[in-house]
Write a structure and sequence with these properties.
alpha+beta; about 400 residues; Butyryl-CoA Dehydrogenase, subunit A, domain 2; Butyryl-CoA Dehydrogenase, subunit A, domain 3; single chain; globular
Length: about 400
Amino acid sequence: MTDAAELRSRTQELLAAHPPAGTGRLEFLRARFDAGLAWVHFPAGLGGLDAPRSLQAVVDAELQAAGAPDNDPRRIGIGLGMAAPTILKYGTEEQKRRFLRPLWTGEEVWCQLFSEPGAGSDLAALGTRAVREDGAPSGPGEAGSGGSWVVNGQKVWTSSAHVARWAILIARTDPDLPKHRGITYFLCDMTDPGVEVRPLRQITGEAEFNEVFLTDVRIPDSRRLGEVGDGWRVAQTTLNNERVAIGGMRLPREGGMIGPLSKTWRERPELRTHDLHQRLLKLWVEAEVTRLTGERLRQQLAVGQPGPEGAGMKLAFARLNQEISGLEVELRGEEGLLYDDWTMRRPELVDFTGRDAGYRYLRSKGNSIEGGTSEVLLNIVAERVLGLPAEPRTDKDVAWKDLAR
C-alpha cells in the first residue's frame, strides 16, 4: 500500500520533472494528474494511486511549499465535488478516461441539470423527458445497440451553465413508474444543438446561475451513467457529495465569512459594543467548531462514501453564513448597507470574501436554498442520522404520470 513517504517521493519527482517556475499551469496540472497525485484515493491511471484519501494532505503540503500551481475549486467545484465521484462510481471505463482528466485540470467546466421549475425540493417529481430512439435500451437490464435519447424539458438554478462544457443531467425515461424509479442519469454536452442557456439575475445583480431549456437534444446512449431507470440512486451519490463539498470545504482558522468580520472588529475599534462583542465571540466559536467538524467529516470520508452527515454540515454552513453576514452589516452600520456594484454580470465563480459586506449579506441568502434547501436537509438529518420516523408520503408508489402537477 502506498504510504506517506512514497507519496512525498513521487511528489518530489513530479516537481523535479516539472519545476513550477518554468512550467505552465495547465501542463503542470496534467502532469500531476498523470502522476496519480490529483486524487490519490482514485484508481491508478485515473488521477490516483489507490492510496488512502487521508494521504492527499501529504501531496498538497509538498506542492504548496514548492509554490506549485493548483486548480480552482471555486470555478470547477461542481465537476470536482459532484461529477467526478459519480462518474468514478457509476461510469464505464471509457467514460472515466474521457472525462476525469479534463475535469480535474479545469479544461472542461461542469454544471448540474437537476432542479426544475416544478421540481426543486421535490426533485424526484422532475418532468424533463428522455425518449429512446435507434436502439437505446428502454428499461433496467435491457441491452442497447448504440442509439441515442431525445431530451426535452427545462432546468433551473443552474450555476455555471453559461461557462460549462458538460452537465450532469437527470431525466424521466419511464412515466409509468413511481417518480423515484423512472429516472435515468446522463452526461449532457452543453454545446449540442437544442441546449439554450438564459441568465437568471439574482439579488446581488449578478447572474451566476441560469435556466436551461432542452429542445430535442440528442444524447448518445454511451453518455448514459448507470442503468436505465436507476438515475435516482446515481443522483444520491451526486447529492451526498454536493453537501459535503459545500458544507465540508477545507478552511483555515478564520476562513470563510468569519474572517472579514473578525478583521473589521480588530481594525475598527470605534464600531465595537459589548453586545456585538458577545455575539461575535459566539459566532467565532461556532465557526471554529463547524470548521473542525468539517475536518472530522473528511477524515470519515477517507474510509467510505459520503453519507447523510453531509446534510448537517451544509445546514450549519448556511445558518452560520447568514448570521455572520448579518452581524457584519450591523457592526458597520450605514456603511454596511453599501453595495459596490449592481451591474448585471455573469461571473465564472462566487467570491464571498473578496467583495464588500453588502454583497456577502445578500449572497448568503441563497445558502439555505442552493445544494438542497435547509428544510429538506433537516428531514434528511432527522430520518437518516437521528433515526426518527419519516414523514407520510402518499405519492411514493403512484405512477409519475398520475401525480397531480
